[in-house]
Design a protein that fits this description.
By secondary structure, the protein is mainly α. It contains 12 helices and 4 strands. The protein is 55% helix and 9% strand. It is elongated.
């Protein structure tokens, strides 16, 4: 199956956290980042154009206010969204991208300001020339601002949708369960669809002494208890 062109330009960055957890970050290449920048530019300058029209009635004073708005929008628009909106400006969000520290942690104010202030250097000599060269010279596609701030632009992982418990009878467990045991029972019921019937029955047999049922009947009884635990009384 053919993949989008921009996916072929990306790499996967493997990171191990201090807690020993391994993260796999899909680093975004020049094409999706350019598209996100274009979308953000349309939003920014569309708003600024409307503001200029609105402030025109104030004459030179209105134009002065507009210049202040232009300055603040140009330099703070990306940083504000990157810090307070999960690392993503509206353009990045549309393209499924976000900015994080090189270790995978959320971007903070110092990093967001550094990477955005250095866009002036990335833009040189024309139209992000230095920035593009820097991106193509390192495996994480970091422009000069990213290198100075220690940040990378990655793909946002889609929200995971866990398995759902099949609909059916709900019964309270005939025996007391600890929180850990309740969670294990719910996990078994939710993930049972990923196991073949024989394996489900084999696991349910471990509690046959409590359910007094065997085989598929034992599996269904455990599912009924799990539905009751999650509040499904239908």
């Amino acid at each position: 199956m053919l993949q989008p062109t921009f996916a072929l330009l990306d790499t996967v960055r493997h990171i191990e956290t201090a807690e020993g957890i391994e993260l796999n970050l899909r680093v975004a290449g020049p094409i999706p980042r350019a598209l996100a920048w274009s979308a953000d530019s349309l939003i920014k300058y569309g708003v600024l154009w409307g503001l200029l029209i609105a402030l025109a009635i104030l004459g030179r004073g209105g134009f002065g206010l507009w210049l202040i708005a232009l300055f603040l929008t140009e330099w703070l628009y990306p940083a504000l969204f990157e810090v307070y909106a999960g690392g993503a400006t509206p353009g990045k969000k549309v393209l499924g991208l976000k900015v994080v520290h090189a270790d995978g942690t959320p971007v903070d104010w110092p990093a967001a300001l550094i990477r955005n202030l250095l866009r002036a250097a990335d833009f040189l000599p024309v139209f992000y020339g230095f920035g593009l060269i820097a991106m193509l010279c390192n495996r994480d596609f970091q422009r000069l601002g990213d290198l100075a701030a220690g940040t990378v632009v990655i793909y946002r992982d889609p929200p995971s949708i866990g398995p759902k418990l099949p609909a059916g009878l709900a019964l309270p467990p005939p025996f007391p369960l600890s929180l850990a045991e309740q969670q294990l029972l719910i996990d078994f019921a939710e993930r049972g669809a990923t196991l073949n019937p024989e394996r489900q029955a084999e696991l349910a047999e471990l509690l046959a002494g409590a359910t007094r049922m065997h085989g598929i009947a034992g599996v269904e009884r455990l599912r009924a208890h799990a539905r009751w635990l999650i509040g499904d009384r239908a």
